[in-house]
Amino acid sequence: MQGPEVAWYLVVAAFLFATGALGVLLRRSPLIVLLSLEIMLNGANLALITFARHQGDETGQIFALAVMAVAASEVVVGLGLIVAIARKRIDLDVDKLNVLRG
Amino acid sequence: MITAAWICLVAPLAATLAITLLGQSLSRRAAGYLATASVLGSFAAAVVVFAKLWGESPDSRSHASTVWEWLNAGSFHVGLRILVDPLSVFMMLIVSGVGFLIVAYSIGYMDGDDEERRYFAYMALFVFSMLLLVQAGNLVILLAGWGLVGLSSYLLIGFWHDRPSAVAAAKKAFIMNAIGDATMALAIFILIQHRQTLNFPDAFAVGPGHGWLVNLVALGLLGGAVAKSAQIPLQTWLPDAMEGPTPVSALIHAATMVTAGVYLIVRTHPVFEQAPRVLELAAGLGAATLLMAGLIALVQTDIKRVIAYSTMSQIGYMFLGAGLGAYGNAMFHLMTHAFFKALLFLAAGIVIHALADEQDIRKLAGVGGALPWTRRAFLIGSLALVGIPPFAGFFSKDSIIASALGRGWYGGILFAVALAGTFLTGVYAFRLYFVVFRGEPSAFVREHVTEHEHSGEGPFSMTAPVAVLAVLSVIGGWIQFAPVWHPVSDWLDPVAPPIATPSNTEEALASLFALLLGLSGIGVAWMLYGARRWSVPRYALGQRVLEHKFYFDEAYDIALYRPSVALAVGLKRWFEDPVIGGSIKEFATGMRDLALGTRRIQTGLVRTYVLAIAASLVVLMVVFVAVR
């Protein structure tokens, strides 16, 4: 295998995942939350591909493709929801969408 | 022959189902005719079975038939098995024959009642249950019939369910009978454990040892018999059962069901013979009951209750006979008693029917002039009851009394008690007859008789059965005259060989005494109530005791009912409410608080959920790594 060590790839993957997670936890705009989710997924994808290369097995890469497909669908649903919320003239703020409170 | 026996059994059941299912589409009259026809069909089938059995040799007169085995547990099998032998055929003839007459009588008696269909469905159900009881080929089927007759008795006593007293009487009868059913079931359990079969007659094969177990089984069976036949100490339900319609009293509480106890003892006589002390106890209970019931009957003022106590007393004689081992004589008395007691009840029913459902003999006084044929029928019934020759009771009762002789001092006591009973029978039977049918009509009778002048003594369906029963009460006893001919005993002996056969001298002695005492009883009644030469003696204390029926009801009330109620109230106050109710309340409050606490976690904010997931993941990873 050429290039940097496997560990470096994993560090980048962890960094991406942590960035995304912080974004999900801290940001209030649903749009940004969705973007952060995508970043988390990409971190996970990077880890999958890294291990696939490391093991010399393509299964992990196939998984990454599947995750991308799912992520695309998820974004479609998420954006659709955001558009629907915006149409109702509700503030785009996840902290105010709390009707499910017990 | 077995087919005929099955037809005999299921015909009344078919009528019950038909009346129930057809409902309004069947007219009330048609329901009555259907029930009557089905019971008549049963009787015809029973006659066919009897004729076929008659033609066989005495040793081979026993046929069993099983249609369906529904319990198979290892070597233990119980099936729907009927047994046709001389004893069951004897009972089938009585049940379906007398039953037919009484159901036919009901057509007239119940005419115009709001719920005739229900009545006739119950009546047919009763006849089916009773036939199941007597045709049963094993103890489980017998117990099923036993319970079913109890049920139909309950339904019919409480037939007029808008009367609180009828409902109370029905419940009382059912509960008293349930005690007997329970002891019988326990006896059957012991038999299952030790005999592996409940089929007649194998269930009672003599086994060595287990002396106290046999006693226990016999006691359990005796408990059932005592409850069903209203003997001491479970007798208190029978007088109250008179709340039902009069034909019900005649059929169930005089002619058939209450004699089931006697049938049970005769049917299971091998068990009792292995437990002779229990058999003696049965005789003693019978003697005590016949004396006590005879005394109580002296002071009752309700026409049906007097006859009810007389029934208890006569069943006491049957228990005495069965307990002494004179099975044939006991069954013979069961038969003649069915005739004359049904006659007395049905005649009383005509009186009650004609006089606006009044049952108090003081109001009914002097009705004989208006109902001459009923008076004659009642007289025949009373003479048969007291045992005056040539009426039926003479032939059957005296043989039972004679059986008591030759049994030592115990037999001597029983003999004396039975004779005292005949004297009492003479007094109370003719007190009833003289008060109700002789003398000047009371104001109440005069008022009501004029309305009834046109209708005579009742419709044909009521008078005809009374006439038939009157004839049977005269000639029914002639089929057995102990010293000369005894076809009834000969017929039954292969099933239940008697252990007591009184000699001719004993028979003559018993007959002489019984006849003299019965006649003197009638004489006393005549002096007191007919000619009124003597004034009725008054002993305040004795009268009060008798009017309270020896305080049995009160004693049970104090000894059983009140403690149970006190226990229940106490348990409710000190256990149910604080412990059970309290703990459930505590539990509910706790769950509610828990739920309220849990509710707080659900904030509705997506970010807190995500944080919770992330934190849990971290914890899981730490644990995972640490454990590795």
As a percent range, the share of strand residues of chain B is under 5%
Compute the average pLDDT of chain A. Answer: 89
Compute the number of strand runs of chain B. Answer: 2
- Principal-axes geometry of chain B comes out as globular
Uncertain runs of chain A with pLDDT below 50, 5 residues or more? none
Intertermini distance of chain B: 86 Å
Beta-strand proportion of chain A = under 5%
Order of helices and strands of chain B: HHEEHHHHHHHHHHHHHHHHHHHHHHH
Taking all Cα atoms into account, the compactness measure Rg of chain A is 17 Å
CATH first level of chain A: Mainly Alpha
Give me the count of strands of chain A: 0
Tally of individual helices of chain A: 3
Q: Note poorly predicted spans of chain B.
A: none
Structural class of chain B: mainly alpha
Largest interface: A-B, 13 and 13 residues
State the domain count of chain A: 1
Mean pLDDT of chain B: 89
Explained architecture:
- The complex is a heterodimer of chains A (102) and B (628).
- Chain A has three helices and no strands.
- Chain A is mainly α.
- Chain A has one domain (6-93): Helix Hairpins (Orthogonal Bundle).
- In chain A, α1 (6-26) runs antiparallel to α2 (30-55) and α2 packs antiparallel against α3.
- Among the domains of chain B are: 286-536, no CATH class; 555-627, no CATH class.
- Chain B is globular.
- The longest helix of chain B is centred in the C-terminal third of the chain and has 50 residues, at 552-601.
- Chain B has helices spanning 2-22, 28-54, 86-109, 116-135, 139-157, 164-195, 211-228, 237-240, 246-255, 260-267, 269-274, 276-297, 303-323, 327-354, 361-364, 372-386, 392-403, 408-437, 443-452, 460-475, 487-492, 504-530, 540-547, 552-601, 606-627; strands at residues 63-73, 76-84.
- A two-stranded antiparallel ribbon of chain B has the order 1-2.
- With 628 residues, chain B is mainly alpha-helical.
- In chain B, α3 packs antiparallel against α9 and α7 packs parallel to α12 (276-297).
- In chain B, β1 (63-73) and β2 form a beta hairpin.
